[in-house]
Amino acid sequence: MNITVDSYQSYLAERYGAWGTEQDMFMKLVEEIGEVAEVLNKRAGRKISDETNLSEQLGTELADLLHYVVAIAAINDIDLTSIILKKDRAASAKYHHSVCLEEYLSDHK
Fold it and tell me: What digits encode the pLDDT tens for the residues 1-51?
């Protein structure tokens, strides 16, 4: 199953739209950043790790980060898809990338 930014954003808008606040979502995002940092510290040997699959744990924490980033956009009615494309187009031009995201997506349909 494929997930698009638009579909994820619509889902989270329905989930949080009536009661979620950007402050609540941001505080959860900050918590999740700390959890990603903890996994990365374990992977680098700076923290003791049990036998947990750290790659799987990292993936789970990164999914949580995406969840709250998209939720913040959703409850603020921000069209992430168009902003991601616009931002990437500007960055690609600024840093002289050979392909921008829009071109990449067109080539990989």
Answer: 999 999 999 999 999 988 999 999 999 999 999 999 999 999 999 999 987
Enter the pTM of the model. Answer: 0.90
Number of domains forming the structure of the chain: 2
Helix (H) or strand (E) segment spanning residue 36: helix 22-43
71 and 92 share a domain? Answer: no
Q: Do residues 38 and 47 touch, judged by C-beta distance below 8 A?
A: yes
Q: What is the CATH number of the domain that holds 29?
A: 1.10.287.1080
71 vs 75: CA distance, rounded Å: 6
Long-range contacts of 90-99 (CB under 8 A, 24+ apart): none
